[in-house]
Amino acid sequence: MTNIGADKTNKMLLATEEDIFNKLVETDNPFRYLNEHFDFAELAGSLSGCYSELGTTGIAVEKGFKALLVQFWEDYSDRQMERGLKDNIVIRWFCGFGLMEDTPDHSYFGKLRKRIGPKRLAEIFHKTNEAMKKQNLFGEVFTFLDASSIITKTALWDERDRAIADGEEKLKNAIINNYTADKDAKWGAKSKTNLWFGYKRHNAVDMRFGLISKVAVTPANAPDYKVVKNICPRQGLVFADKGYDYQEADRWIRANGCIPATLRKNNNKQKNHDLDRWHSAIRMPFESTFSKQSKRARYRGRTKVLFQCFAEAIVYNLKKAARILPSLATVET
Fold first, then answer.
1. DSSP percent split of the chain into helix, strand, coil, nearest 5
2. What's the start-to-end Cα distance of the chain, in Å?
3. How far apart are CA 102 and CA 120, in angstroms?
4. Which of 107, 214, 234, 320 is deepest in the core (most CB within 10 A)?
5. Directed axis angle between helix 78-87 and helix 107-134, to 10°?
6. pTM of the full predicted structure?
């Protein structure tokens, strides 16, 4: 009888918590839309094998995954994420923690990211996109390829001074990893004056709603066209800027069953100015996808930066989906 009474009490407490959350979490909150349209338990299901030994015991895989999404959604540090779970009722509700339930401390999140790794997160990224495709958020007709900079450190004066002291003329890419903490990062340049030290994020963007369909990361000195084979779609017209105007890139695009819509360089004999103007007008509205993404590396090393880029791509797509899905539902009704 005691157990029965305890069970009834627990059910009443849960019902009360649900009522409190329903009153405090606004109906138009984007996290509500996500819970309604995405099965996060299924998306995070592949993480169960790597999650069982993580720091705080008893945290369900879905809760950890949602906390990771919120961290990148809000651009929180680990300590800010710890505080957010404790103090923010919406974050607590979305991640699945009860009002009186203990939440993990900051050390949990680093262990979580390490256990998941970029390979598993890439799988979740593709699973999330598949779920969005079922909701008609991807058109898979026009795709836009481009790269953007990720800065891992803004000043390298100490490293430069050490290199010069060793007899080097300057801190160039050939010797830079002998002096910097991030051994994978390199100098990149968009022009003689636009230089950065770090990486490149390479994205494929579906042009229906501007959602990211593929992601790759390279050192900053990698040529854009070399990455086409990693981010090219399997169908449709592929738009790209002049940095992709190479025969190798065209071959990869055609080999994937696509048609290149690359802006041609002025010295390309096949350049068609009218066609290039049309290509440029089509892709222009989607360039904001790249400009809005973070330009700084949260971590050191290409593997960790790749993890960051996949996490940011998932969150970017979910943010857009939370805005698009309600409007689509209104149109359908």
1. 55, 15, 30
2. 50
3. 27
4. 214
5. 80
6. 0.89
